[in-house]
Amino acid sequence: MASTAQLKEKIALACKLTDREQIKRMNELHQTIFRKVDKALENKNSYKLVFQEPDSSLSGQLFEFIKFEQLCCPWLNFQLNIQPGDGPITLEMGNSAETKEMVNLVMEIDKIGKPR
Rounded to whole angstroms, how far apart are CA atoms 107 and 101? Predict the structure, then answer.
């Protein structure tokens, strides 16, 4: 497994987002969205973030987050599941052991905590 420093370097090198305002907004979304996570589930090659009781702004924030992440990391796979009514929302990120490591680092940086 790569060290945290190596993963940070990989993320920085892989990120294709260069506009300062877009980077600033993406960082704001990270902080906002990741604070709303009720639990993070670890899968073989990905992490699934679960939002049990999403607020009315979450789905829009997640769409914007995915848009920026696709600009930054076009190789990263996302699966968004929005349940009817006030049901939970899940966001799965990752599609390989390496991308899973990068997602884990981002979650640690943004203080989601250890997956359960």
Answer: 10
